[in-house]
Design a protein that fits this description.
Blueprint: H1 3-7, H2 10-27, H3 48-58, H4 62-82, H5 86-105, H6 112-122, H7 130-151, H8 166-176, H9 179-218, H10 221-224, H11 228-249, H12 254-266, H13 268-283, H14 291-298, H15 300-318, H16 322-325, H17 328-352, H18 357-367
Helix pairs in contact: 2-4, 2-13, 2-14, 2-15, 2-17, 4-9, 4-13, 5-6, 5-9, 5-18, 6-9, 7-9, 11-12, 11-13, 14-17
Length: 381
């Protein structure tokens, strides 16, 4: 075993691999119409309701929550490695450049730019006492919840247009039209998210989740997992918040449905931690038991961008008719198929190369030829 591989925590690689695979199950719904996402078919498929319940309980916000926590983990590990924040800031600036290019020219649902900007604030807590990090994480998450709840008051109260309506067709046209028009759409969304939504609400949620990741890592969670008592408490909390979210989402009031846009985000937090705990327990017997997930986790950045390239190519260029015909079961099957392909691709790639192409480019742009490629942890590795 090489020195580089000895540095890696297989639990973190596995959790990151699960997160990378899982986020596509929700992102795929926005690869075509990136503004409105999934609109039910006419008539709605019989599988839509059970799959919506499944999605809200086990998918939505769960894997992006893991992704965000792992970014905080990565910041701590990078700090332990470098001993100062300057190299971390250099890496974050390159990551933000990747995110900007990704969001404008490929897919506006990018998270890398927001993560990089938020991490510039999060690194202030790298030397903070553990209790202080935990306290600040809860405060940031609580504040973001309040702000998001207030923002739901500005959401429209009328139902979304049907897939066959002229309004929907008009909203869809720019996304499958000429590339320049798509870029302008991307740019408008990126400006709205970065200049408006991030400082008002998203920054505080992302910060809270990153600090939660820092807290869990420094508490040795990624080596030991949860205690039995903590696991039961989180499970009960997840069930309670999930029930509240489903009640709001399936209510007759559009105002309550709008509130569910927020509850689904925060009901995801305990589930995200439980997913990580499950992976850690599965890895406890053997470091290689989840090798396929570990391989995916080592190529997190490259596979994240590849997901966007594939989704955009399929839904906007190769098979735009999917946007008219796909219901939730089709999206689920497509995401499952691509998850299997990513597992096979990652396993093959790492037999031939030591580092992902974008991971290697990232390191080169941040440090040039002065440092040899070294495997490190975290989403920002």
């Amino acid at each position: 075993m090489s020195a580089n591989s000895q540095m890696r925590n297989p639990n973190i690689d596995s959790v990151r691999g699960l997160a990378v695979l899982g986020i596509f199950f929700i992102n795929i719904l926005f690869m075509g119409n990136s503004l409105e996402g999934y609109i039910p078919t006419i008539p709605a498929a019989a599988s839509d309701v059970p799959l919506e319940v499944f999605s809200r309980l086990l998918l939505e916000g769960r894997f992006i929550g893991l992704f965000t926590m792992l970014f905080g983990v990565g910041l701590v590990i990078q700090y332990q490695r470098f001993g100062q924040v300057f190299p971390i800031k250099r890496r974050l600036k390159i990551l933000m450049l990747f995110g900007l290019l990704h969001g404008i020219f490929i897919w506006p649902g990018d998270v890398l730019l927001s993560y990089g900007l938020s991490a510039m604030v999060a690194i202030r807590y790298l030397d903070a006492p553990l209790d202080h990090i935990h306290k600040r994480a809860l405060q940031f998450l609580g504040f973001s919840a309040i702000v998001m709840l207030l923002l739901t008051q500005a959401l429209p109260t009328e139902p979304l247009p049907s897939r066959l309506s002229p309004e929907y067709q008009a909203s869809l046209a720019p996304w499958i039209g000429p590339y320049l028009g798509q870029v302008l759409q991307h740019l408008a969304m990126m400006l709205m998210m970065t200049l408006v939504m991030l400082p008002i609400a998203l920054l505080w949620y992302i910060l809270g989740m990153m600090l939660l990741g820092m807290y869990l890592y420094r508490s040795h969670f990624f080596n030991e997992g949860l205690t039995d008592a903590a696991r039961i408490r989180l499970l009960l909390l997840a069930l309670l918040l999930g029930a509240v979210d489903l009640t709001l989402y399936f209510s007759e009031s559009r105002a309550l449905v709008n509130l569910a846009e927020i509850t689904v985000i925060f009901s995801a937090i305990p589930v995200s931690v439980l997913y990580a705990d499950l992976i850690i327990r599965l890895c406890r017997g053997s470091e290689t038991v989840l090798k396929p997930l570990q391989n995916v986790g080592k190529l997190a950045l490259s596979l994240y961008i590849l997901q966007s390239l594939l989704g955009i190519a399929c839904f906007r260029y190769l098979f735009p008719d999917w946007l008219q015909s796909f219901d939730r079961i089709h999206y689920l099957i497509t995401a499952l198929t691509w998850a299997a392909c990513q597992i096979l691709l990652a396993s093959w790639y790492l037999r031939c190369f030591k580092q992902g192409p974008l991971e290697r480019l990232w390191r080169y742009l941040a440090f040039g030829r002065t440092q040899r490629a070294t495997n490190t942890h975290g989403v920002n590795s």
